[in-house]
Amino acid sequence: MSSSQQSPPEQVDAVVVGAGFAGLYQLYRLRELGLSTRVFETAGSVGGTWYWNRYPGARCDVESMAYSYSFSEELEQEWEWSERYATQPEILRYARHVSERFDLLKDIDFNTTVTGAVYDHLAHCWTVTTDSGERVTARFVIMATGCLSAANLPRISGIGSFTGAIHHTARWPHDGVDFTGKRVAVIGTGSSGVQSIPLIAEQAAELTVFQRTAHYTLPARNRPLREGEIRERKAGYREFREELRRSPTGIPRELPARGAFEVTAEERESAYETAWDSGVLGALSTAFKDLLVSPAANETAAEFVRDKIRSAVADPVTAEALCPRDYPLGTKRPCLDTDYYATYNKSHVRLVDLRTTPIEEITEQGVRTADREYQVDAIVFATGFDALTGALAAIDIRGRQGLALRDKWAAGPRNYLGLVTAGFPNLFTVTGPLSPSVLSNMMVSIEQHVEWITDCIAYLRRNGLTEIDTTAEVEDAWTEHVAEIASGTLYPQAASWYMGANVPGKPRVFMPYLGGVGAYRVKCSEVAADGYTGFTLSSCAVEWTEGVAL
Ligand code: NA7
């Protein structure tokens, strides 16, 4: 497939960047529309984040029967999920099954990274370049690059001098890692740390966890799915999917009618116990309608979790260090776990609180904090991602007048509906910043975006149009709307990756849209039904025949 730098670029209708769940579905839809499409993927196979995140305990914390495609009734009827929360290997099997079932692989170039894309404002098309030196010209580029794909490896001094093994949870070796008999350090206690720590502890001779921020985590209550419940869900799958699409987050759960102080202390406690027992992501922060807007209400739920931690962890000093204190519950990504807190009762597991003794350097032998060195054989970085914008900023994307997307977004992402950014026409982002993205069931949001983008391209074609852009005024209004909704909540109070706070130098802007999946879908659909209001549509002199005629 590859051609040399000198040969003329291949012309296709669309390039899709990424072959995770977004890219796979986008390819399927564009093919259905009759568009010639090339997909480029850095990884050696499909699956996106599920291809890379192979650390022990990696699993989805949205229920598997909700975290799956809905576009094909046959697919959803024939696929059997085995657990309430699917493991990474099972999700990866599913991604592979989908890619084979719909014959998608033949249009995907694996082990190929898109390095740049330049817009030609006269021809209304992009020239995309890859690290294999290939150039492809496409009228449309769809960035299906994922929200959590650019791994964040902190720049800790001395990291290169460590003589043991270094692993990042988001770049885990395919053959797995055997920690038996090893002294292991885990740095980071977000979802990846919380999921992997109990399993690493089962193998390691010694486990030292380095915690910068204590996280709120709820027991997942994972279990095998029962045949009866699978049958029942499949019988009502259509209604269930509709319910998810209309819901605030695309995750099935009860919506509260009352505030935390509109009930007695006993009723409040009982509601929190119900949420704790549910094993549903975000159940606690939505147990009452005001938990994410009122600090006092939030504190009642936060204290409930701290009590659970104190009763689960035997050593009071460790328990206190594990209690989150400096941000409201739910304002950093909540976690679901299996035996996380109990792991700290094991005699070979210890917690180092980086708030009192920060890491100073990585040494040849291990990790040195402000008070001592911890000698280890392996370091696991569970330090997360340059979320939402990292994968986009890694590509040199040049819009009108050569403007670089990374420069345009230097103070934070700006766009309209999270879909199109002004000056970068015909470039769509799937679940991009300023859309519900990571505050939703990604499958629900991916399907909605892919379908919207596909319908939009179909509309352009039907109407002889070749370009869709938006204006600075329209995107300013949307960007401000997203910020305004966030500012009415407690979310901006946390130094979270939603805010870009985990990556030094990244602008602190709340990136996901908090208006809710259902409301957002309605807004996107209305915009489309009204002829794409807020977007500027135009046609170039070149007729659309087969492929892009330039
Ligand atoms: P997260 O949620 O970003 O967690 C990363 C963790 O690593 C978190 O505890 C960070 O502390 C910590 N971290 C990051 N940089 C450092 C440095 N320099 N020193 C010490 N500790 C550090 O990533 P995950 O991979 O766990 O989860 C990401 C999402 O994947 C998850 O939410 C699900 O959606 C799936 P911090 O909190 O920033 O102080």
Question: What does it look like?
Answer:
There is one protein chain. The chain is α/β, with parallel strands linked by helices and 550 residues long. It folds into two domains: 3-151 and 387-538, FAD/NAD(P)-binding domain (3-Layer(bba) Sandwich); 159-228 and 248-381, FAD/NAD(P)-binding domain (3-Layer(bba) Sandwich). The protein is 31% helix and 17% strand. The protein is built from 16 helices and 20 strands. Strands 1, 2, 3, 4, 5, 6, 17 and 18 form an eight-stranded mixed beta sheet that branches. It has a five-stranded parallel beta sheet with strand order 7-16-8-9-12. Strand 14 (366-369) and strand 15 (373-375) form a beta hairpin. Helix 1 (21-32) packs parallel to helix 14 and helix 9 (295-312) packs antiparallel against helix 10 (316-322). The longest helix is centred in the last third of the chain and has 21 residues, at 442-462. It is globular, with a radius of gyration of 24 Å. It starts with 9 loop residues before the first strand and ends in a 12-residue tail after the last strand. Ligand NA7 is lined by residues 148, 154, 169, 187-193, 212-213, 333, 354, 359, 382-385, 497, 502.
